[in-house]
Amino acid sequence: MRMRGILKKETLQILRDPSSIALAIVMPLALLFIFGYGVTLDAEHVPVAIVSDDAGQMARAPLARFDLSPNFETRRAASMVEAVNLLNTRQVDGIIHLQDGFSSRLSSMNPAPVQAILNGIDANRARLIQGYTQGVISKWSALRRARGEAAATPAVTVSSVSGSMKPPKVATSWCRGSSP
């Protein structure tokens, strides 16, 4: 009985003030579409610099996977100094670096790391890029295993950089901070 009275009262209120329909139905639907389609956390076409110190076929194959990925917009850099300058001027959001000897380490079943240096100012975007980088390398490794090619799976090591980064003097000292 009481419920029927409340239902009648609310129906009369809606008929008297049609703007309450907009507040109760239209507004939540509009917000659902805005947040559902307008706000996305996916990073697409992320500009990254690619540096390969190894000219071997095994080093060219994973880099080609980055070129084909819809998540990355690759830009080749001749050296780490050039890539660091691109990162410091914010022309790229990260650097993918294959060090010298990548192919030989991979074929001899030794760890062959792929280094991803990411702009750490936006930590969420850096984590997304890290995940995409690991995904590209994992798919490339799975493809190699499916073809029966024996090779160690390269690990992706990630370094986050907040602020500007100095060009490298020695290959082992060019990263200020790192994250697991």
Describe the structure.
The chain is α/β, with parallel strands linked by helices and 180 residues long. The protein has two domains: 2-38; 46-161, abc type-2 transporter like domain (abc type-2 transporter like fold), CATH 3.40.1710.10. It is 48% helix and 16% strand. It is built from six helices and five strands; from the N terminus they run ααβαβαβαβαβ. It has helices spanning 2-16, 19-38, 57-68, 80-88, 102-107, 123-146; strands at 46-52, 72-76, 94-98, 114-119, 156-161. It has a five-stranded mixed sheet with strand order 2-1-3-4-5, sandwiched between helices. β4 (114-119), α6 (123-146) and β5 (156-161) form a beta-alpha-beta unit. α3 packs across α6. The longest helix has 24 residues, at 123-146. The protein is elongated. Mean pLDDT is 80; it is low at 168-180.
Question: Which outline best applies?
Answer: elongated
Overall mean pLDDT stands at 80
CATH homology group of the largest domain: abc type-2 transporter like domain
Number of strands: 5
The helix content is 40-55%
